[in-house]
Design brief:
alpha+beta; Aminopeptidase; 5-stranded mixed sheet; 5 helices; 5 strands
Length: 162
């Protein structure tokens, strides 16, 4: 069963975010708290959305996503930040069901893109996504500013007008 996340799901989602980060060898980068996630998902104007995959009343996995906008297409899309299915629930169709739900939301709302990133060494995920017909965008590398470089840019003196 796939359903929108509820406030009571926040501890499980945070736990799965940590599990995913461990799998991706990046547990040291996780800073999210239950309060952060609750605020992002359940404030008046949510920054993100989440769906839960359940099996026999147990949380099996989740997808966390947010809206994007394509200047080229002129409409919203979905960026899937995380898709995670707990190891004991893999091969049960939960990942596919979560992807289908996001695709359904795109179709229902007229969104024209469903995008995400995947680590280049994560062969099982790459095979799963390619089996769905997803296309790898090698010509669009992702860049990121965090921590000190982000602070430095934010606090750089503004150029003065001539």
């Amino acid at each position: 069963m796939i359903r929108p996340a509820l406030p009571a799901d926040v501890p499980e989602i945070v736990s799965m975010i940590r599990e995913l980060a461990e799998y991706e060898k990046a547990a040291h980068e996780v800073r999210v708290t239950e309060e952060h996630l609750h605020d992002a998902l359940f404030r008046d104007n949510p920054a993100a959305f989440a769906h839960i995959a359940e099996q026999d009343g147990e949380v099996a996995g989740f997808a966390l996503w947010f809206l994007t906008f394509s200047t080229w297409r002129g409409v919203h899309g979905i960026h899937m930040e995380d898709l995670y299915v707990r190891p004991r629930h893999r091969k049960g169709g939960h990942g596919l069901a979560l992807m289908r739900e996001l695709a359904r939301i795109c179709a229902e709302r007229g969104y024209q893109r469903l995008e995400w990133a995947v680590l280049d060494w994560n062969e099982p995920a790459i095979a799963f996504y390619e089996k769905l017909g997803a296309v790898r965008l090698d010509e669009w590398p992702t860049y990121r500013l965090t921590d000190e470089p982000l602070r430095r840019l934010a606090t750089a003196p503004r150029p003065t007008a001539a």
